[in-house]
């Protein structure tokens, strides 16, 4: 993709800005909106994404595609692979975690939020990336789940602009793979990095929490969860 990048000092949410632009203007494929600060950063399941000035990369891009809703999870997973490869190239031992996270050990460093947009003849997916860059450990501790940043992991502050520039080739690589083969094209590497199969996991969906083991991933990247009563297919939820 040939990204056209627009930087803003401060936005509510880069996902929401791009979404509004999609519905109100004719935006082009690969428009990427990034903000140095978000005042209303959004995560999955109505969570807030803490987005202090220059604390991280807050960026969303528009991918024009007719891919149906069912293919969104695997696109999000392809993006998690892009971010984890990028972090590995920087000497940070990161790995993707189903469905949309990148972790270092047990701590979250990146989350991805994909949303489908559709209007008459045009449709596509907005992909939002939140990558913690310059958050100190004290700031990360204020997040309600274990979190980390590039600064904490590498002792180096980085500019979000530079991180974005370095990350784009990885994003292009993984999106091309996804475009050419959907989840099947990323299954092997995803399973290797987010697995291994057989590892004990707990899955939480709302108030429901079940324990079992990872049985693998389905055709579209859905989680296959081995419980005492058989293999369940999980489309949304959190692994704990
Ligand atoms: C999650 O882990 O729940 C997903 C977090 C996604 C955060 C990013 S930051 C850029 C983009 N704009 C938003 O409001 N959210 C995404």
Keywords:
SH3 type barrels, BirA Bifunctional Protein, domain 2, binds biotin, 240 residues, alpha+beta, 12 strands, 2 domains
Describe what you observe in this structure.
With 240 residues, the chain is α+β, with helices and mostly antiparallel strands. It is built from 6 helices and 12 strands. It has helices at residues 14-24, 72-89, 137-141, 150-154, 160-181, 187-194, and strands spanning 4-8, 31-35, 56-64, 94-97, 101-104, 107-119, 122-132, 200-205, 208-217, 223-227, 230-234, 238-239. It has a 7-stranded mixed β-sheet, sandwiched between helices. Strand 8 (200-205) and strand 9 (208-217) form a beta hairpin. It binds biotin. Biotin is lined by residues 13-15, 38, 41-44, 47, 49, 58-60, 100-101, 111-113, 128-130.
Number of separate strands? 12
Report the radius of gyration as a whole number of Å.
17 Å
Provide the spatial order of strands within the biggest beta sheet: 1-2-3-7-6-5-4
Low-confidence stretches: none
Top CATH class of the largest domain: Alpha Beta
The first-to-last residue Cα distance is 34 Å
Number of separate structural domains = 2
Q: Mind summarizing the main beta sheet?
A: 7 strands, mixed
Residue share in β-strands? 25-35%
At CATH level 3, the topology of the largest domain is BirA Bifunctional Protein, domain 2
Helix and strand composition category: alpha+beta
